[in-house]
Amino acid sequence: MLFNFNLKSSILLIFFVHGIVFSLLLLKKGVQHQSKESFWLSLFIFLSSLYIAPFMLGYAGWYSKQPYRDIMFYIPFQQLFLLGPIIFFYVQSLLNKSSQLFQKDFIPFVPAIAYFIYTLIVFITDKLVLHQYYFYADERDKDLSTWYQVAGLFSMMYYVFLSLRYYAIYKKIAFQVVSFAETILFNWVRQYLIALLVILSLRVLFFILNPEWDEFGNKFWYYLCFSILFYYISISGYSNAIKTVIPYQASSLFNHDSSYLLHEEKGYEMNEIIKELVNETDAITITDIEIWKQKIEDLMIVDKAFENPILTLTDIAEKLATNPKQISQVVNQGFNMNFNDFVNSYRIEAVKEMLKNGEHKKQTLLGIAFGCGFNSKSTFNRTFKKQTSLSPKEYINKLENTAKDLNK
């Protein structure tokens, strides 16, 4: 088989092979665990591998010899209209375990289907009917046509932006309804999406400033950056073991509806809560706020509800025999904090109290943090520094220095 090994073709070949391998591993993982996000990511990684294939094979000499040239011409390697929707549905399935595809969700795939039909017509006309190049009379790969590249580029940018918007809503909800938000934020997904959006934006900018950049040989740096990015998400997505516990459905993003459904295993469908979080409508009286504030404080101080490392808004609502929306409003309006910060403030106070009593001399600092409800060392350190302006060790040193001064 023809393959001219050079710097460009060899580098892209490494990413291509690894992409195919990760795609198969993710597919296996999806089958074994019935994991929708693994299926979506497997498809995205596979399409990303095909996306760099024309340039990998082009640098390897496939456009210059038959039958390789016809393979490049008639196989639509670059599915530009599929990449965007696939990455969006991957993000949706990752953040929302209860997400389902509805009939209207297939609309984003219409352009990809239309392009596939177009490539099929080109193949049938040139190879089966006329037996000569008709559509390919100019001998230029249709996948690299300017109109398709530009349209596909903006399609990807749109769905990356939509994915970032979806993530932003997820993050907002996480801090409002659970006390362990930082452990389920999937920061690597957000970082990948931002990096991908930057790369796509730079490609648009360079094309505007230098139209000749459309030439085949000038695109290597872009495909190299894209390869690094999809390789990053391959590793991160495969190794990621965090399970989302606050799934929500945002299929209404397509019609800009501000109503989002939060679904928890306990059966609550808190549509109204999410409306409150997104639109910040309605209010309760000052008297009601004060009454509920006292009830919530009693639950925290007396029952030590904060020691539950997976405490949620729903848990508090059940204990106080009310609805989660009521608790959400009181915490936001009465304590001027989101639910995550509110619960963590009690956890930090409990840690501080234990440190004052010398518990750090009997057990590890991490043991104290976990006993007070934290389930992540990094979250504990970050929250402690945020609320005290000191790291835990600095706080302990300050306590010991104060004790020494008092004993003098």
UniProtKB/TrEMBL annotation:
A Pfam family recorded for this sequence: HTH_18
SMART domains, alphabetized: HTH_ARAC
Transmembrane segments: 6-27, 39-59, 71-91, 112-135, 147-168, 189-208, 220-238
Signal peptide: none
Domain annotation HTH araC/xylS-type: ranges: 296-398
Annotated keywords: DNA-binding, Membrane, Transcription, Transcription regulation, Transmembrane, Transmembrane helix
Gene3D superfamilies registered for this protein in UniProt: Homeodomain-like (1.10.10.60)
One example GO MF annotation: sequence-specific DNA binding
PANTHER family per UniProt: ARAC-FAMILY TRANSCRIPTIONAL REGULATOR
Protein name: AraC-like DNA-binding protein
Organism this protein belongs to: Arcicella rosea
